[in-house]
Design goal:
two-stranded antiparallel sheet; flat; 7 helices; alpha+beta
Length: about 240
Protein backbone atom coordinates (compact mmCIF):
# COMPACT_ATOMS: atom_id res chain seq x y z
CA UNK A 1 0.00 0.00 0.00
CA UNK A 2 1.43 3.38 -1.04
CA UNK A 3 1.84 6.36 1.31
CA UNK A 4 -0.97 8.14 -0.55
CA UNK A 5 -3.30 5.19 -0.02
CA UNK A 6 -2.35 5.00 3.66
CA UNK A 7 -3.09 8.71 4.09
CA UNK A 8 -6.46 8.34 2.33
CA UNK A 9 -7.29 5.38 4.58
CA UNK A 10 -6.49 7.46 7.68
CA UNK A 11 -8.72 10.28 6.48
CA UNK A 12 -11.57 7.88 5.74
CA UNK A 13 -11.17 6.18 9.13
CA UNK A 14 -11.25 9.52 10.94
CA UNK A 15 -14.37 10.60 9.04
CA UNK A 16 -16.16 7.36 9.88
CA UNK A 17 -15.08 7.63 13.51
CA UNK A 18 -16.34 11.21 13.75
CA UNK A 19 -19.61 10.22 12.08
CA UNK A 20 -20.27 7.32 14.48
CA UNK A 21 -19.18 9.37 17.49
CA UNK A 22 -22.04 11.81 16.91
CA UNK A 23 -24.49 8.91 17.24
CA UNK A 24 -22.69 7.64 20.34
CA UNK A 25 -22.89 11.12 21.89
CA UNK A 26 -26.60 11.32 21.03
CA UNK A 27 -27.13 8.07 22.93
CA UNK A 28 -25.14 9.48 25.85
CA UNK A 29 -27.45 12.50 25.94
CA UNK A 30 -30.56 10.33 25.86
CA UNK A 31 -29.21 8.13 28.65
CA UNK A 32 -28.52 11.22 30.76
CA UNK A 33 -32.07 12.48 30.22
CA UNK A 34 -33.53 9.12 31.21
CA UNK A 35 -31.31 8.86 34.29
CA UNK A 36 -32.53 12.30 35.40
CA UNK A 37 -36.14 11.15 35.02
CA UNK A 38 -35.41 7.95 36.95
CA UNK A 39 -33.76 9.80 39.83
CA UNK A 40 -36.59 12.33 39.99
CA UNK A 41 -39.22 9.59 40.21
CA UNK A 42 -37.25 7.58 42.76
CA UNK A 43 -36.89 10.66 44.96
CA UNK A 44 -40.33 12.27 44.65
CA UNK A 45 -42.83 9.62 43.57
CA UNK A 46 -44.07 6.26 44.79
CA UNK A 47 -42.21 4.28 42.15
CA UNK A 48 -40.13 4.72 39.00
CA UNK A 49 -41.80 3.80 35.68
CA UNK A 50 -38.43 3.00 34.08
CA UNK A 51 -36.98 -0.42 34.91
CA UNK A 52 -33.82 -0.26 32.80
CA UNK A 53 -32.38 0.90 29.48
CA UNK A 54 -30.13 -0.59 26.83
CA UNK A 55 -28.33 1.21 24.01
CA UNK A 56 -27.10 -0.09 20.67
CA UNK A 57 -24.87 1.44 17.97
CA UNK A 58 -24.87 -0.20 14.53
CA UNK A 59 -21.51 -1.33 13.20
CA UNK A 60 -20.16 0.13 9.92
CA UNK A 61 -20.73 -3.29 8.27
CA UNK A 62 -24.38 -3.35 9.38
CA UNK A 63 -24.92 0.23 8.18
CA UNK A 64 -23.42 -0.48 4.75
CA UNK A 65 -25.47 -3.69 4.43
CA UNK A 66 -28.71 -1.82 5.09
CA UNK A 67 -27.70 0.95 2.72
CA UNK A 68 -27.02 -1.64 0.01
CA UNK A 69 -30.40 -3.35 0.57
CA UNK A 70 -32.19 -0.02 0.19
CA UNK A 71 -30.24 0.82 -2.97
CA UNK A 72 -29.00 4.14 -1.58
CA UNK A 73 -25.77 5.99 -2.37
CA UNK A 74 -22.68 5.33 -0.25
CA UNK A 75 -22.23 8.73 1.37
CA UNK A 76 -22.62 10.13 4.88
CA UNK A 77 -25.56 12.27 3.81
CA UNK A 78 -27.24 9.25 2.26
CA UNK A 79 -26.67 7.24 5.45
CA UNK A 80 -28.27 9.99 7.56
CA UNK A 81 -31.32 10.09 5.33
CA UNK A 82 -31.70 6.34 4.77
CA UNK A 83 -30.59 4.56 7.96
CA UNK A 84 -32.58 5.99 10.85
CA UNK A 85 -31.74 3.33 13.43
CA UNK A 86 -27.95 3.67 13.65
CA UNK A 87 -28.34 4.71 17.29
CA UNK A 88 -30.97 2.90 19.31
CA UNK A 89 -32.08 2.95 22.92
CA UNK A 90 -34.58 0.56 24.48
CA UNK A 91 -36.49 1.67 27.57
CA UNK A 92 -38.14 -1.11 29.55
CA UNK A 93 -41.07 -0.03 31.73
CA UNK A 94 -42.97 -1.64 34.57
CA UNK A 95 -46.53 -1.22 33.29
CA UNK A 96 -48.42 -0.46 30.08
CA UNK A 97 -49.41 3.05 31.16
CA UNK A 98 -45.75 3.81 31.93
CA UNK A 99 -44.86 3.43 28.25
CA UNK A 100 -46.99 6.40 27.24
CA UNK A 101 -46.02 8.30 30.36
CA UNK A 102 -42.33 8.06 29.49
CA UNK A 103 -43.06 8.85 25.85
CA UNK A 104 -44.93 12.02 26.83
CA UNK A 105 -42.08 13.16 29.09
CA UNK A 106 -39.55 12.77 26.27
CA UNK A 107 -41.78 14.52 23.74
CA UNK A 108 -42.17 17.53 26.05
CA UNK A 109 -38.42 18.17 26.21
CA UNK A 110 -37.86 21.25 24.07
CA UNK A 111 -34.43 20.29 22.75
CA UNK A 112 -35.74 17.01 21.32
CA UNK A 113 -37.63 16.81 18.05
CA UNK A 114 -39.94 13.85 17.42
CA UNK A 115 -39.71 12.86 13.76
CA UNK A 116 -41.97 9.81 13.79
CA UNK A 117 -44.04 7.63 16.14
CA UNK A 118 -44.98 4.01 15.41
CA UNK A 119 -47.34 2.49 17.96
CA UNK A 120 -47.02 -1.28 17.70
CA UNK A 121 -48.94 -1.64 20.97
CA UNK A 122 -52.24 -0.32 19.65
CA UNK A 123 -51.40 -1.79 16.24
CA UNK A 124 -49.23 -4.91 16.81
CA UNK A 125 -47.23 -6.49 14.01
CA UNK A 126 -48.76 -9.68 12.50
CA UNK A 127 -46.34 -11.89 14.48
CA UNK A 128 -47.51 -10.35 17.79
CA UNK A 129 -44.63 -7.89 18.31
CA UNK A 130 -45.55 -4.94 20.52
CA UNK A 131 -43.57 -1.82 21.35
CA UNK A 132 -43.75 1.95 21.01
CA UNK A 133 -41.15 3.32 18.59
CA UNK A 134 -40.09 6.96 18.39
CA UNK A 135 -37.58 8.54 16.02
CA UNK A 136 -36.11 11.47 17.92
CA UNK A 137 -33.68 14.10 16.66
CA UNK A 138 -31.09 14.95 19.30
CA UNK A 139 -28.77 18.00 19.15
CA UNK A 140 -25.13 17.01 19.65
CA UNK A 141 -22.74 19.87 20.43
CA UNK A 142 -19.35 19.13 18.89
CA UNK A 143 -16.26 21.35 19.14
CA UNK A 144 -16.99 23.16 15.88
CA UNK A 145 -20.66 22.47 15.06
CA UNK A 146 -24.02 21.24 16.25
CA UNK A 147 -25.17 17.97 14.70
CA UNK A 148 -28.84 16.94 14.64
CA UNK A 149 -28.70 13.19 15.17
CA UNK A 150 -31.54 10.69 14.82
CA UNK A 151 -32.04 8.15 17.61
CA UNK A 152 -34.57 5.32 17.57
CA UNK A 153 -36.27 4.93 20.95
CA UNK A 154 -38.15 1.72 21.72
CA UNK A 155 -40.35 1.70 24.82
CA UNK A 156 -41.91 -1.55 26.03
CA UNK A 157 -42.90 -3.48 29.14
CA UNK A 158 -40.86 -6.30 30.70
CA UNK A 159 -43.25 -8.86 29.20
CA UNK A 160 -42.98 -7.31 25.72
CA UNK A 161 -39.19 -7.23 25.97
CA UNK A 162 -39.04 -10.85 27.14
CA UNK A 163 -41.15 -12.01 24.18
CA UNK A 164 -39.27 -9.91 21.62
CA UNK A 165 -35.86 -11.11 22.84
CA UNK A 166 -36.79 -14.79 22.70
CA UNK A 167 -38.59 -14.40 19.36
CA UNK A 168 -35.41 -12.88 17.91
CA UNK A 169 -33.26 -15.74 19.24
CA UNK A 170 -35.64 -18.37 17.86
CA UNK A 171 -35.65 -16.86 14.36
CA UNK A 172 -31.91 -16.15 14.43
CA UNK A 173 -31.16 -19.86 14.99
CA UNK A 174 -33.74 -21.03 12.43
CA UNK A 175 -32.18 -20.73 8.96
CA UNK A 176 -35.14 -22.12 7.01
CA UNK A 177 -38.69 -20.85 6.72
CA UNK A 178 -40.44 -21.15 10.09
CA UNK A 179 -43.35 -23.65 10.13
CA UNK A 180 -46.81 -22.12 10.44
CA UNK A 181 -47.38 -24.02 13.71
CA UNK A 182 -44.43 -22.30 15.37
CA UNK A 183 -45.54 -18.91 14.07
CA UNK A 184 -48.96 -19.43 15.65
CA UNK A 185 -47.42 -20.52 18.95
CA UNK A 186 -45.28 -17.39 19.00
CA UNK A 187 -48.38 -15.29 18.33
CA UNK A 188 -50.19 -17.09 21.17
CA UNK A 189 -47.24 -16.38 23.46
CA UNK A 190 -47.45 -12.68 22.55
CA UNK A 191 -51.16 -12.69 23.45
CA UNK A 192 -50.33 -14.32 26.80
CA UNK A 193 -47.73 -11.63 27.51
CA UNK A 194 -50.35 -8.99 26.69
CA UNK A 195 -52.81 -10.56 29.13
CA UNK A 196 -50.11 -10.52 31.82
CA UNK A 197 -49.43 -6.83 31.19
CA UNK A 198 -53.11 -5.95 31.59
CA UNK A 199 -53.43 -8.08 34.73
CA UNK A 200 -50.40 -6.45 36.36
CA UNK A 201 -51.75 -3.01 35.42
CA UNK A 202 -55.03 -3.78 37.22
CA UNK A 203 -53.16 -5.06 40.29
CA UNK A 204 -50.99 -1.96 40.38
CA UNK A 205 -54.03 0.32 40.23
CA UNK A 206 -55.69 -1.54 43.10
CA UNK A 207 -52.56 -1.37 45.24
CA UNK A 208 -52.20 2.36 44.54
CA UNK A 209 -55.83 2.94 45.59
CA UNK A 210 -55.31 1.05 48.86
CA UNK A 211 -52.07 2.92 49.52
CA UNK A 212 -53.71 6.32 49.09
CA UNK A 213 -56.38 5.37 51.62
CA UNK A 214 -53.85 4.38 54.26
CA UNK A 215 -52.76 6.68 57.08
CA UNK A 216 -49.44 8.39 56.31
CA UNK A 217 -48.88 9.58 59.88
CA UNK A 218 -45.74 7.44 60.25
CA UNK A 219 -44.07 8.94 57.17
CA UNK A 220 -40.90 10.90 57.92
CA UNK A 221 -41.45 14.37 56.51
CA UNK A 222 -38.56 16.05 58.33
CA UNK A 223 -35.77 14.80 56.04
CA UNK A 224 -34.93 14.31 52.38
CA UNK A 225 -32.60 11.86 50.62
CA UNK A 226 -30.59 12.89 47.55
CA UNK A 227 -28.01 10.60 45.97
CA UNK A 228 -28.19 8.27 49.01
CA UNK A 229 -27.35 11.17 51.32
CA UNK A 230 -29.87 12.11 53.99
CA UNK A 231 -30.52 15.77 54.84
CA UNK A 232 -32.66 17.01 57.72
CA UNK A 233 -34.97 19.93 57.06
CA UNK A 234 -34.03 23.10 59.00
CA UNK A 235 -35.74 23.14 62.39
CA UNK A 236 -36.66 26.79 61.87
CA UNK A 237 -38.61 25.88 58.70
CA UNK A 238 -40.50 23.13 60.53
CA UNK A 239 -41.34 25.54 63.36
CA UNK A 240 -42.64 28.14 60.87
CA UNK A 241 -44.89 25.58 59.21
CA UNK A 242 -46.13 24.48 62.61
CA UNK A 243 -47.14 28.03 63.53
CA UNK A 244 -49.14 28.38 60.31
CA UNK A 245 -51.56 25.66 61.34
Amino acid sequence: MSERQIEQLKIMRNEITRFLLTYKFALDEMETKIEILKEEFESLHDYCPIEHTKTRLKSPESIMSKLYRKGADFSFESIRETVKDIAGIRITCSFLSDIYRVSDMLQKQNDLKVLEIKDYIKNPKPNGYKSLHLLIEVPVFMSDRVEQVCVEVQIRTIAMDFWASLEHKIFYKYNQSVPERLLQELKDAADTADELDHQMERLMNEVQTIKHLQDHSTEDLTSIIINNQKFSLPRALIDVLGKQE
